[in-house]
Structures are given as C-alpha cells and as structure tokens.
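Note to self: keep these together.
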Amino acid sequence: MARYNFSVLATTPAPQAADGDFLQQFTDFAQRAERNQIDGLLIFCSHRYFDPWAVAATILQSTKTITPLVALQPYALAPFTAAKLIWSLTTLHHRRIDLNLITGAAKDELDQIGEQLDHDERYERATEYMTVVRALLSSEEPLMHDGRFYRYPGLLMYSRLDPEVRPQIFVAGSSAAGKKMAAAVADVAITHPEPVEQFADTFSSPARQDLGTGIRIGLIARPTKEEAWSAARTSFPEERITRIMTAMRKRSESDWMRRLAHLATQEGVYDEVYWTGAFGKESMPTLVGTYREVADYLERYLALGVRTVILGGTYAEEDFQHVAVVLAELRSRE
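Structure:
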C-alpha cells in the first residue's frame, strides 16, 4: 500500500488564438492530462478568458475520469443558477464537479463591476453563498434563507444530488478571513506554500479535523539536477516585467501573494529545491531538481498532511511525462 493517498490536479491554460481551434485546444489538454494520470483540472475565472462552466462542460465531454475544479465567483453567478448548473452537468455526465470558491483578487475586475465590499466582506458573502448552494444541492425542500446577502422565502430548484456526487469545495486563502471561510464551508483549504519548514509553522494545522489541506505548486524535474535547472531558467527567464510584477505583489491585498512576493529574491532558491523564479509569471513556487529530489521534497509536504496537489506550469506532453515520473516515484513508496 502506498505511504500517502493524495490527488493531483493540473491547471487548465488559457488557449492561444494563434494555435487555432479553441475547442480542440481544451480537448487536447484535458485528454493529455488524463493520459498522464491526473485526477482533475483547475479552471480559472477571469473576465478575459472563456467562461469556466463552458470549459468544464468541454472537459467532461472529452474525458472519462477527469474531475473539473471550477472557479465559482459569487458576483458572477446567482447561487441558485450555480446550483442548477452543477446539478445539470453532474446529472448529464454522471461525474462529480468540484468547486473552487473565490472572492476576487484582481482589483481591476472588482472595480469594473462596481464591487463595494471590502476584502473581509467578500469572504463573508462567499461563505453565505456557498451555504445556499450546498443547501440547494442537498435537499428537495423549499429553501428558507434570510441572510445578509441573500434572502429566499421558499426557493425550490429541484437540484438535489446524491452525496457521492456532490461537489467538494476548495477554498484558497491564507488570511484570517480566508481561513474562517475554509473552516465554515470548505472540504479542502488550498494555499501556495512557503518552503516546507516555514509551511509546517504557518499552514499545516487545519481549522477543522476533517478539513483537507492542498497546495498549488510547479514541478520541474529531470534525470539530473543540471538538466532541471536549465529547463527551469529557460522556461522562466528573469525579465524586467516579472521583477516589476513581483514588486507590485508585495502590496497585494492577498495574504499569500504578499508572502511569496517577499520570498521571491533574485536567486529565489530555498532548500536547494524550492524556487520562486516562476512566481512573476505563474504566481506560484516551483520545486526544481532530479526526479528523486523533487519527489523527496514533495513528500515532506505530504508528511505534514497535504492530500491535494494542484500543479501549475504543466501544459505540454513533455511536462506531464516528467511530472509522471515524480508521481510514480511517490506512489510506489510504502
């Protein structure tokens, strides 16, 4: 039996117009992830990209086992509409859809919609929002709800799902408000982790005993250390724009983004494996080294209780194949 039982998700990229058929790009990527034993795909929500629900439908249509992890933004979708979408896609495809409950970190997008709530209030709204969505997915009885942000005198959506196919709720956030929301409504709390020794002190103790812990991180592994670092610095060269973005993120409203921005020095290497050189482009730390070095470092996070790993920067077939070696190494350990 494997030492650790963990799930691995990849991050769905934004398709490029120069590459032709958008639908084919999403289909190819989802099938590539499935071939390489990836469990799910994170789908972002942004004003400039495709609607995440349309992308989720494409993933469900083109794969057999991948679980979409759909970014759910309260200001973009009424909770009863979200519940009906989840019920419809789950029922049509006989597959679970998981939810990444977000509150909005892009100030320009919040300004565009005239958002009046501050950081903590957005977390409060999202907590109530998810409470409503969960209620609509859990019962066929009319919903009586009288809250601060939502009021329903008897809402009946016919959207109940059986427990085994109800979505798992992911919440990202390291601030006090984010942790409070995770404790209230999440199944998995996600963060972009610090080096593993610091992570052990700052995030590894969940707010609830049954609350899972997950991390979003990049993996660049090769047969030799020299090959791995060459690939890392080629993929993420230091550029003026990335230095500017990192400096700006030191003043971000997001707690985890501020912390990682301060970690991102010119070299950005910690413990010989943990690297912040991709932060300016991918907004995440990266583990760089031989297959064994990366597997060993990732195992240290698993030993602290991490059971979900969301990969960023893994897009091409070659990326997935190198990651697959690391995951096979980890899963073979007893």
